[in-house]
């Protein structure tokens, strides 16, 4: 994709570029120029999205009114922003499409409003946030929340509607706000809510202990975000009646740099309730998946959530544990789905039985590892 102005220069002079972040597909029947079906959501077409990360994808079967909105976007991106990489470039036929009442409405930030301005997705979301009813609700499942204007809109809506319930469920990396340049808004939002006496906002974070590892670049243990098995959803439900979902993270890069989209569902329309209910069920499952007190067998991929206070305490403790080289050596032998006996760990780490045993105990105490029996053999694996 050609950058075409979608770039930003940081204070240190480094230039960052936006990406083609949309994840939709369109289907045609042979000989018919009108698309009949489509899909869209948070999921890339990849093994990690299909099998590892928390993702979503909505399919619109035999709904040309929806597919044509995506076809318009594809033609716009293809004609205005693409560049030849392979083969011969041919223009895509562009047909302007309007939202058909009764079907999902899709907002694209590549779509021009006039000669100077492009469509703003954040203004659509702020309007949705402001529609929270006095005794209503807002449930946000979001990979990245770094856009101040959207966080402020939640605060204002919660303050205006003290009888409403606001729940925010975020990716593991969002609780680590030590670097102010990353502008992670959830901890800030919790702090501001406390200062303002707003009591109807709850925030939880998906958490994985084995997302921590040793960085050879920084020469210290850190949170390695991709190891957290991304909580990659990007959806918000308001009053259990309206829902916005798509590729759009609540971030500045999504708003101003990337090509993004958001779909708007409303229970007023046919079949929308079923889709909203599916996401509500997913949210409730994840929200209520609290971290267990005991782990007796590997549970990689099983969702676990923590509060900010719980997450920060664990964050510091886990970094401290991995700060000891012997502990990290043991953990490194159990990467991914590995199962190792005690003797194998001793041999691979070269630590000796006594030091290996001490490290295993420390890692078990922090639930990095779990001791269990596989095919009649006792050994160790990553706990989560």
Short description:
This protein has 384 residues and is α+β, with helices and mostly antiparallel strands. The protein contains eleven helices and 17 strands.
What are the key terms here?
Endonuclease, Chain A, 32% helix, eight-stranded mixed beta sheet, 2 domains, Arc Repressor Mutant, subunit A, 384 residues, alpha+beta
User: How do the helices and strands follow one another from N- to C-terminus?
Assistant: EEEEHEHEHEHEHEEEEEHEHEHHHHEE
The CATH architecture designation of the largest domain is: 2-Layer Sandwich
Would you identify the regions where 5 or more consecutive residues have pLDDT less than 50?
none
Give the averaged pLDDT, no decimals: 93
Top CATH class of the largest domain: Alpha Beta
Number of helix segments? 11
Q: What is the domain total for the residues?
A: 2
Rg from alpha-carbon coordinates: 23 Å
CATH level-four homologous superfamily name of the largest domain? Endonuclease Chain A
| Biggest pleated sheet | 8 strands, mixed
Structure, explained:
Helix 4 runs parallel beside helix 5. The protein has two domains: 223 residues, Endonuclease Chain A (Endonuclease, Chain A, 2-Layer Sandwich); 67 residues, Arc Repressor Mutant, subunit A (Orthogonal Bundle), CATH 1.10.10.10. The mean pLDDT is 93. The protein has an eight-stranded mixed sheet, sandwiched between helices. Strands 3-4-5 form a three-stranded antiparallel sheet, with helices on one face. A two-stranded antiparallel sheet has the order 1-2. Strand 12 and strand 13 form a beta hairpin. The protein is an alpha+beta fold and 384 residues long. The chain is globular, with a radius of gyration of 23 Å. The two termini are 38 Å apart. The chain has eleven helices and 17 strands.
């Amino acid at each position: 994709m050609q950058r075409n102005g979608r770039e930003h220069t940081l204070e240190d002079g480094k230039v960052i570029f936006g990406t083609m972040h949309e994840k939709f597909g369109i289907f045609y029947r042979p000989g018919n120029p009108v698309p009949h079906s489509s899909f869209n959501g948070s999921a890339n077409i990849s093994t990690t999205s299909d099998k590892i990360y928390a993702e979503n994808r909505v399919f619109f079967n035999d709904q040309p009114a929806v597919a044509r909105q995506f076809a318009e976007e594809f033609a716009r991106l293809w004609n205005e922003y693409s560049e030849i990489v392979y083969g011969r470039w041919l223009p895509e036929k562009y047909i302007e499409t309007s939202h058909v009442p009764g079907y999902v409405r899709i907002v694209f930030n590549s779509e021009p409003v006039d000669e100077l301005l492009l469509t703003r997705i954040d203004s659509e979301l702020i309007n949705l946030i402001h529609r929270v009813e006095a005794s209503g609700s807002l449930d946000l499942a979001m990979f990245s929340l770094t856009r101040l204007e959207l966080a402020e809109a939640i605060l204002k809506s919660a303050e205006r509607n003290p009888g409403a319930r606001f729940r925010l469920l975020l990716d593991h990396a969002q609780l680590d706000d030590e670097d102010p340049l990353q502008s992670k808004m959830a901890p800030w939002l919790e702090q501001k809510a406390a200062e303002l006496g707003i009591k109807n906002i709850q925030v939880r974070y998906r958490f994985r202990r084995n997302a921590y590892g040793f960085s050879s670049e920084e020469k210290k243990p850190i949170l390695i975000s991709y190891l957290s098995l991304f909580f990659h959803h990007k959806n918000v439900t308001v009053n259990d009646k309206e829902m916005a979902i798509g590729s759009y993270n609540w971030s500045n890069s999504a708003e101003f740099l990337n090509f993004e989209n958001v779909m708007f569902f409303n229970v007023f329309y046919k079949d929308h309730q079923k889709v909203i209910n599916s996401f509500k069920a997913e949210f409730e499952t994840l929200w209520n998946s609290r971290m267990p007190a005991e782990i007796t067998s590997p549970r990689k991929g099983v969702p676990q959530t923590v509060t900010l206070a719980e997450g920060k305490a664990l964050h510091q403790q886990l970094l401290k544990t991995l700060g000891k080289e012997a502990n990290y050596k043991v953990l490194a032998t159990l990467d991914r789905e590995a199962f190792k006996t005690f003797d194998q760990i001793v041999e691979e780490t070269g630590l000796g039985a006594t030091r290996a045993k001490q490290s295993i105990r420390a890692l078990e105490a922090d639930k990095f590892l779990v001791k269990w029996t596989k095919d009649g053999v006792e050994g160790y694996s990553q706990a989560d």
